[in-house]
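Could someone model adenosine-5'-diphosphate with this protein?
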Amino acid sequence: MDKKNFILFEEKFSKLDEIHYFKAPARINIIGEHVDYLGGLVLPAAIDFYVEILVQKNHSNKFRFYSVQYKEEFETIELIHQKNKQWTNYILGVISEFEKLNHKVSGLDILIDGNIPQGSGLSSSAALEVVVGFAIKEIFNFNVSLEKIALIGQSAENNFVGTKCGIMDQYIIANGKKDKCLLLNTATLEKTYHELELENFEFYLINSNVKHSLHDSDYNLRREECESALKKIKDKQPTLQNLYELDEVPDYLNETETKRVRHVVGEKKRTQAILGYFRNKSLEQAASILYEAHDSLSNLFEVSCGEIDFLIEELKKVNVSGARMIGGGFGGCILVLDQKGNKEKIIKDLKQCYLEKFSLVLEIYSFQISEGVTKVLQGLI
Ligand code: ADP
Ligand code: MG
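Reply:
Sure, complex below.
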């Protein structure tokens, strides 16, 4: 947290109580894309990019927020959707979910800052929800588990923001562990942590800087298409709970549903395969699964975009071991798994040809796998 923010906080709100400092990380997901709302297995990890907040109780019924990124203030006494200040809905949504659980949240002042690129598939939205949920639990001493904080964040995004996201992002951001990825069953919330031995390989991210915006994108449509496929299948197989339980694609779905279900069934197979490759330390093969996953996301689930597909093809041309789009899609970041030392060699040319073709600046992020949401300091000033 920039030191200036402490001064800014006092300027905006005055010090009325103890000021607390919390932060929540971004996340990557190695495999299991667009299956966390279909009961699938996912393999995410928290990374060291953060949404950070300073918070105090203001001893009133007002909620007052200040966004450093947007340079915008906001004040309300009512928990209602804000059409023109979307960023406030993630916070108001979380407060509203606490209230639904009969946890009364009194007035708060919150300053929000951070370095997670927004709308880039690294889940800045879930980081914001989880950091606010965690702060509320700590400040009001609510008996709420980290799992519940994740569920509160997801409900806030589903109900208040309007994005029908799954549970993965909030779950890993609340429960991340340093140097470990999480294998999460999104149907049961059973989880195991795993350390990936990457040997001479590394993960890194390429931001296409094509901005997605999940809430007004096709994201919710994908969910509806999957729900309609599930409904048809359940008519014939009533015991089926989730699309992810399927091992074969039924032959009576329409063309769109068939494509979506083919992605889901394929992703299940790819997940098993990649887990095996990681176990055997076959990193080259593990990486190649990422290309397969991308192909499916682009052609079957249809959530990629021209810029990202172009980058993936360029990476293949220069023999990068594996890469795929991550997150909701329609832009944002690519996750790369490649031999160490290659990144430096390929990036300059890639940046240049991307700029020439799309007039967009490509960014590269290296990262560490980090802890989930944390309290950094209490009673600061
Ligand atoms: P992603 O979660 O992939 O970053 P989303 O579109 O789901 O993309 O969420 C991005 C939105 O989350 C932003 O448009 C903004 O409303 C909110 N947000 C994220 N980080 C911050 C922040 N540091 N300050 C204010 N709002 C933020
Ligand atoms: Mg998001």
